[in-house]
Structures are given as structure tokens and as C-alpha cells.
Design brief:
Distance between the termini: 59 Å
Structural class: mainly alpha
Strand content: under 5%
Order of helices and strands: H
Number of domains: 1
Shape: rod-shaped
Helix content: over 70%
Length: about 40
């Protein structure tokens, strides 16, 4: 039981970290797009 709970915690942590990385990449894309629009 404990082993399964631990695996679930690790899985959730990996999932949230990957989501955060995606959010950061999307933010960078938005910033770059905004700069390009401002230059135009």
C-alpha cells in the first residue's frame, strides 16, 4: 500500500513539474510574440 502511495506522489510531482515547464515555455512564446508585434 505504501509503495503505491509513494508512486502516486512521485507521478503527481512529475506531472506538475512538466506542466510548469510547459507554462514557462508558453510564457516565453507569448513574450517573444508580443515583442515581434511591438516591432511591427
Amino acid at each position: 500500500m505504501y509503495d503505491i502511495g509513494l508512486k502516486v506522489q512521485v507521478f503527481n510531482m512529475a506531472l506538475t513539474s512538466s506542466c510548469l515547464i510547459r507554462c514557462r515555455l508558453n510564457m516565453k512564446k507569448c513574450v517573444y510574440a508580443g515583442r515581434l508585434l511591438n516591432l511591427l
